[in-house]
């Protein structure tokens, strides 16, 4: 987060009164200078130019700055295509029935909007950034946001409908569901982002509410909470489990042609199933945006790199400062000053040589205290090593590792191979794991893997960089089974 800098702070009331053009004027002036003249960098020896790659925002924010309609109940609410809201209920994006926005058609729509003063195919006015920048285009400048579309949109919306149906079929009661949500023995980061009890207001609203992290955890762990109470072929359950698969694909930091095609097929199948199970329920705009994702991933790369999640975390800093200083005389000034102090501090304390690992406590021990087979592997890889540092808790690149966590060490034909961390040591400044191999059997109903001990690969040693996926996972005992649910799709 110390790599996210502050350019402009303003009050939302001022945006309403003066508009983005006025508010962003100083920033646009700087950016135009950066495009035309650039900055002289002594170590490079010449001017380096730059521009804005993309604007990351929730849908309303993106549409306000880009100049599209700001109402998602209007006829043309999609910034990726000119599909009508009524057609969007009938046709899928992959059917090819909607015209994607292209430069020529966009220019014509903008011209018409400017001449008539009324919206044309969802275009209201010129994009604030396009007014000043030559190398930024509104059509490529506003990627979708997974956080708001999926975790605060599609997921809580479909959870509301599917859970309501499961409750009406009396597989479990509302009280039982909330008792499971509240008392489930969440581990590690699952505990930090544990879902809250679902409010009764879900019966009268179109969503279960909740923030992105909570909803992400709820859809991922729901099979462990109530999966055993639901029959295998229950349609509402299948809708939710399809959505769980889609979530894992959408948050994947790596994509291949195959994974994008698979996501495309999944989204289509899921839409069909949802409409069959809930024929009277209208699809929400965010479900339509999701249908554009496979094509958008081809343009932007994995969308998880462009979500607002990090910016929301950054925003948290400002909310905290506002609460603590309790001075509202000129709140943007107060926040900006505090932020610059924080950035100054982190720049000063930044060292290139600083280890990428953050450890709580370490104990240095002779290599010989480790298991013989592990000692052998380390000596083969690092011949001069006599001592290693043992630790029980490490953070690397924002991911925390503890003994007992489950990692994916390899992936064979899309099937992950799991292992449990039984010891962590630091060798030559790098994090290494002593792992216990596990067999993973896919349990489709739970969309999770059942873990059993693996006689062939008992104990082995891997470096962090050798893991197929660095994301550490938690296993849970559910009805006598030891289960683990992936957080994101793993590629071979
Ligand atoms: Zn569209």
Topology:
Blueprint: H1 12-23, H2 25-36, E1 39-41, E2 46-48, H3 59-66, H4 85-90, H5 103-116, H6 146-168, H7 174-183, H8 188-192, H9 212-226, H10 235-250, H11 257-277, H12 285-300, H13 309-325, H14 331-348, E3 357-359, E4 362-366, H15 372-381, E5 387-391, E6 393-396, E7 399-402, E8 406-412, E9 415-427, E10 430-443, E11 448-453, E12 459-463, E13 469-473, E14 475-478, E15 481-484
Antiparallel strand pairs: 1-2, 3-6, 4-5, 5-9, 6-7, 8-9, 8-13, 9-10, 10-11, 10-12, 11-15, 14-15
Helix pairs in contact: 6-9, 6-10, 6-12, 9-10, 10-11, 11-12, 13-14
Bound molecules: zinc ion.
Zinc ion (ZN) binds next to helix 12.
Structural description of this entry:
The protein has 492 residues and is of the alpha+beta class. It folds into 3 domains: 12-142, no CATH class; 146-306, no CATH class; 357-484, SH3 type barrels (Roll), CATH 2.30.30. Helix content is 41%, strand content 17%. It has helices at 12-23, 25-36, 59-66, 85-90, 103-116, 146-168, 174-183, 188-192, 212-226, 235-250, 257-277, 285-300, 309-325, 331-348, 372-381; strands spanning 39-41, 46-48, 357-359, 362-366, 387-391, 393-396, 399-402, 406-412, 415-427, 430-443, 448-453, 459-463, 469-473, 475-478, 481-484. A hairpin with a 2-residue loop joins strand 6 (393-396) and strand 7. Helix 9 (212-226) crosses helix 10 and helix 10 packs antiparallel against helix 11 (257-277). The longest helix is centred in the first third of the chain and has 23 residues, at 146-168. The two termini are 30 Å apart. The relative contact order is 0.09. Bound molecules: zinc ion. Zinc ion binds next to helix 12.
